[in-house]
Specification:
Blueprint lengths: L6 E5 L9 H15 L3 E6 L12 E4 L2 E4 L2 E7 L4 H10 L3 E4 L4 H12 L4 E4 L17 H12 L4 E4 L2 H9 L6 E3 L16 H6 L8 E5 L8 H13 L5 E5 L5 H7 L4 E4 L3 H9 L3 E4 L8 H8 L4 E4 L4 H4 L6 E4 L4 H13 L1 H15 L4 H20 L15
Parallel strand pairs: 1-2, 1-6, 2-3, 6-7, 7-8, 8-9, 10-11, 10-13, 11-12, 13-14, 14-15
Antiparallel strand pairs: 4-5
Helix pairs in contact: 1-14, 7-12, 10-13
């Protein structure tokens, strides 16, 4: 079997209606598949004004706004007409990108038709409850995820650290890596723009601590703001630049009234914003890769990040940035203070990060996943099947 023989049905809860790292990675994957002659059909919720044009043939599925997060859509399943469309398309592999109702429905249809299924893991959903005062639900969410992923032929994490977490959680017997790339023509030190900084009220002679991402609590906004308070209390000169939008923007702005909010940025504008920072602070523990971390490194910006999945495979502690135990406010403040007060250290870490980022190209990482598609399809054709689900889904 060759790549041109692949017929991929991709199911995801968000393909292009809200921009994030996960759906941009999926669009780049589809573009690579199409460029190599494969056929692809995408099934996902759609909206009248998506965040960006979809790559490939996108089929809308029924969905409703998520309460409290209306910008996101909750898919309600496939439905008879979409199932008929899927039959006509006749995929030979199914890729599910979110363990929601749509993903479960796609998995069930695939199992009935004896189609191989792969799943990509884009976020640590089991960690979300802790940000909403529901930490006791984490074991329940983890068990539900385990039940879902074990029905797949293989699952793919974006980093080795996340893959190891999935193995330790006993999510699957077959855990592979689908890494992420970076657009080095956009994220480069050459995009640094002192005039743009000045237009926002950011001084040339004061180091800027940056945040990039959706403004939601699960990105660690509380940890970020607490650490900034500690840096301020130490009398360390600094300014804060926030790049992104989201439902927690008002809370964040009240929490950090001196910060500069640049809003949502994309493309060359995002590259300029990242390169114009002096360091990136990424305290999130929900990431499975950390696209913003890699983008900052490509822009020659040192990174202070939580020692968590994703970032710990990108950041070399003491070389390209600093890794800090999640939630350790004083330690985060120590790392930020060190970079704020040592321009040479910032420059050295940024240059080292730039060199590391050169290992990550989109074509290479997507070709690796496509090769895994072919392996899974061949294994199923040879009679292989995912393990039968036991009566105790929490145990292997």
């Amino acid at each position: 079997m060759d790549v041109s023989d692949l017929r991929v049905a991709l199911f995801t809860g968000n393909y292009n209606y809200v921009r994030d790292g996960a759906n941009q990675a999926l669009n780049r994957l589809v573009a690579r598949l199409l460029s190599r002659g494969a056929a692809v059909r995408i099934y996902s919720p759609t909206v009248a004004k998506p965040a960006f044009p979809a790559t490939g043939d996108l089929i809308g599925v029924p969905a409703v706004p998520i309460p409290g997060r209306a910008e996101y859509r909750f898919p309600l399943g496939i439905g008879p007409r979409k199932r008929a469309d899927m039959r006509r398309f006749a995929p030979n592999i199914v890729h599910v990108a979110s363990p929601d109702i749509l993903g479960h429905a796609a998995l069930s249809v695939a199992r009935r038709r004896n189609l191989p299924v792969v799943a990509s893991v884009h976020t640590r959903f089991e960690t979300y409850p802790r940000y909403y005062g529901l930490a006791f639900l984490e074991p329940v969410v983890e068990a539900l995820l385990r039940r879902f992923y074990r029905r797949c032929d293989a699952i793919f994490a974006p980093s080795e650290s996340m893959a190891q977490v999935l193995r330790e959680q006993r999510m699957s017997f077959d855990v592979g890596i689908w890494s992420r790339g970076v657009e080095r023509d956009i994220f480069t030190p050459d995009r640094r723009d002192p005039a743009w900084r000045q237009s926002l009220g950011l001084r040339d002679d004061v180091p800027v601590i940056g945040f990039v991402g959706r403004l939601v609590m699960e990105k660690g906004l509380d940890v970020f703001s607490d650490a900034i308070d500690h840096v301020t209390a130490r009398g360390v000169p600094h300014q804060v630049l926030i790049v992104g939008e989201g439902p927690a923007r008002e809370w964040f702005a009240q929490r950090l009234p001196e910060a500069v909010f640049a809003g949502f940025q994309m493309g060359a504008d995002l590259g300029r914003a990242v390169a114009s920072m002096d360091m990136l602070f990424n305290p999130s523990v929900t990431e499975t890769f950390g696209n913003v971390t890699l983008e900052a490194m490509a822009a020659g910006v040192p990174v202070v990040a939580a020692r968590a999945t994703g970032s710990e495979n990108l950041v070399q502690d003491g070389v390209t940035g600093r890794l800090v135990r999640p939630g350790a406010i004083d330690r985060f403040a120590d790392a930020l203070t060190a970079y704020c007060t040592d321009e040479a250290a910032r420059a050295a870490a940024g240059a080292a990060g730039r060199r590391v980022s050169e290992r990550y190209g989109w074509d290479q990482v997507n070709d690796a996943l496509i090769a895994a598609y072919l392996r899974v399809v061949r294994a199923r054709a040879a009679g292989g099947r995912p393990p039968v689900r036991s009566r105790r889904p929490d145990r292997l």
